[in-house]
Design brief:
The protein is built from three helices and three strands; from the N terminus they run βααβαβ. The protein is of the alpha+beta class.
Length: 98
């Protein structure tokens, strides 16, 4: 005699959604290619105004901007990103904070 089928166990599906609050939001500084600065000028600005920037990393970012049109050069607090963007823009770079 066949046994009655047992119902399948359906796993619980949980989705974690995290919402930030306070100062935990991060912003990015994006620099766009403008064809008006030398690599040296861009590297100097990055090393002067972006915390923990090395000349090797600055060169990589400058190359990416030159060849891809843009690069994210900093990610951090909105306040710090806006400060860095203002300084880079003051040096003549095309920047945006996202």
């Amino acid at each position: 005699m066949p046994t009655p089928s047992t119902p399948e166990t359906i796993p619980d599906i949980t989705e974690e959604i995290q919402t930030g609050s306070g100062t935990g939001f991060e912003s990015r500084v994006v620099v766009y290619n403008c064809e008006c600065h030398t690599y040296k000028q861009v590297i100097d600005l990055f090393c002067r105004f972006i915390p923990s920037m090395t000349s090797a990393k600055a060169f990589e970012l400058a190359w990416r901007i030159d060849h891809h049109g843009e690069a994210i050069v900093f990610t951090g607090s909105t306040e710090q990103a806006e400060d860095i963007a203002a300084k880079l823009a003051g040096g003549g770079l095309r920047v945006a904070v996202q």
